[in-house]
Write a structure and sequence with these properties.
This protein has 13 helices and no strands. With 456 residues, it is mainly alpha-helical. Among the domains are: 1-121, Actin-binding Protein, T-fimbrin, domain 1; 123-159 and 183-282, no CATH class; 418-456. The radius of gyration is 65 Å and the shape is rod-shaped.
């Protein structure tokens, strides 16, 4: 049902606030949306006086203005229903909105205006509703007055007036007490008179009803004797209708009297509360000072608590900052170590490359020198052979060619480096080379000499 009502409110009526089944009770707790719905159907002319606020005075104002319109539509609306809606009791707002939906659909089909609906209602019913609305407004005014008095009490507690002399305070206090006693006695007398009047009215009604019953009985007896049955039945029916109407009037009158009594009791309750508040306001200066001192102590305690929280917050921020600084330092050291490691790696790589280049150059020089030496020996051998062939024009003897080959294979120079005829005590390097060549050839000859003899 709540979903149907939400669809009707959001899509058809398009109210100012979007209503959902979960927030249904809260949305209608202040009565503003109910007034808006009635205003869209041209039943709430004072919708401009409604308030969207959720304070108690605004809610009382809205529901007091809604009450006559809801009664005009034939809905059962009283203080209990309003209290249930204000306190967001589950199902209260949904039930009222469903009844309002049915009543508005009925009104829409009939096509009646607000004025026509008011004229069609009985006069006693309108008076009764006006009395109820007045009672509701009186209660609202009394509650507003209580709120104002409580605000005055708070202002009096906070703002301490200067102490006055006892002489100036005694006379006004005595006069006020006398006035209050007189007013209390007058109110008590009025209540007693009102109760006595109610009792008299009830007794008069009972006696009138008894006399009416006896008169009806006598008339019926007489008519039974002097008239026919049909005429008697008509008269009896008319008398019964008159008695029923009289009883209904008496019931309405009693209801009005009870409403007046309830309103009077509410006024008395407000008066008693006002008296109690005035008595509380007459507290001593010392109590006010104690209250102010307590407020100051609470304020100082609150300040200390706030300072403690602020100091703890500063400590926490300092710890976080130190921790972040330590992390930053470690990160900087790690970055520096990484940079140093990269530089060391670059240096070692350069040294490695330099060593590799030097090794390559050394190998190249070594190979170059070996190749150059071999090439020189080849050239020496070839030139030696060419010179011999050119000079002798004959083949080279086997023994000579064998010696040259042995010198070539051993890497010794084929050409004579120095003369050994004039050998000194300290021969030169060339002479030493020649001596080595001679020893080498002698050893080869000896080895060749030994090999054939061994074979034999």
């Amino acid at each position: 049902m709540s979903e149907i009502l939400c669809q009707w409110l959001n899509q058809e009526l398009k109210v100012s606030q979007t209503v959902s089944p979960k927030s249904f009770a809260k949305a209608f707790s202040n009565g503003y949306l109910i007034g808006e719905v009635l205003h869209k159907f041209e039943l709430q002319d004072d919708f401009a006086e409604f308030s969207e606020s959720r304070i108690s005075t605004a809610k009382l104002n809205n529901f007091s203005r809604l009450e006559p319109t809801l009664h005009l539509l034939g809905l059962q609306f009283d203080q209990n229903v309003a209290h249930n809606i204000i306190t967001e009791k589950p199902g209260a707002a949904t039930k009222l909105l469903y009844q309002l939906y049915i009543a508005l659909q009925r009104k829409k089909k009939s096509g009646l205006t607000e004025v026509e609906m008011q004229t069609m209602q009985p006069l006693t019913h309108t008076k009764l509703q006006s009395m109820k609305s007045e009672v509701f407004r009186d209660q609202r005014l009394s509650r507003r007055r209580q709120n104002e008095i409580m605000a005055q009490i708070q202002a009096a507690i906070i703002q301490i007036p200067k102490p006055a002399s006892n002489r100036t305070l005694k006379a006004p206090d005595a006069q006020k007490m006398m006035k209050k006693k007189i007013e209390a006695e007058d109110v008590a007398n009025e209540i007693k008179n009102f109760e006595a009047l109610i009792k008299k009215d009830l007794q008069a009604k009972e006696s009138a009803s008894r006399s009416l019953d006896t008169a009806v009985q006598t008339t019926t007896d007489l008519l039974n004797t002097y008239s026919d049955d049909d005429y008697i039945k008509k008269i009896q029916k008319r008398l019964e209708e008159d008695a029923f109407a009289r009883e209904q009037r008496e019931k309405r009158r009693r209801r009005l009297l009870m409403d007046q009594l309830i309103a009077h009791e509410a006024q008395e309750e407000a008066y008693r509360e006002e008296q109690l508040i005035n008595r509380l306001m007459r507290q001593s200066q010392q109590e006010r000072r104690i209250a102010v001192q307590l407020m100051h102590v609470r304020h100082e305690k609150e300040v200390l608590w706030q300072n403690r929280i602020f100091r703890e917050k500063q400590y926490e921020e300092r710890r976080l900052k130190d921790f972040q600084d330590a992390l930053d330092r470690e990160a900087a050291l790690a970055r520096q170590a990484k940079i140093d490691f990269e530089e060391q790696a670059i240096r070692e790589k350069e040294i490695h490359e330099q060593i590799a280049v030097e090794r390559a150059q050394a190998r190249y020089k070594k190979h170059y020198s070996i190749c150059a030496e071999i090439l020189d020996q080849i050239l020496d051998l070839s030139t030696k052979v060419a010179d011999y062939r050119m000079l002798t024009n004959n083949l080279i003897p086997y023994k000579l060619m064998h010696d040259w080959k042995e010198l070539f294979f051993s890497g010794k120079p084929i050409y004579e480096q120095a003369s050994l005829k004039h050998l000194s005590a300290k021969p030169s390097a060339e002479q030493l080379v020649e001596l080595e060549k001679r020893d080498f050839l002698d050893n080869n000859d000896y080895e060749e000499y030994k090999v054939p003899s061994d074979k034999k």
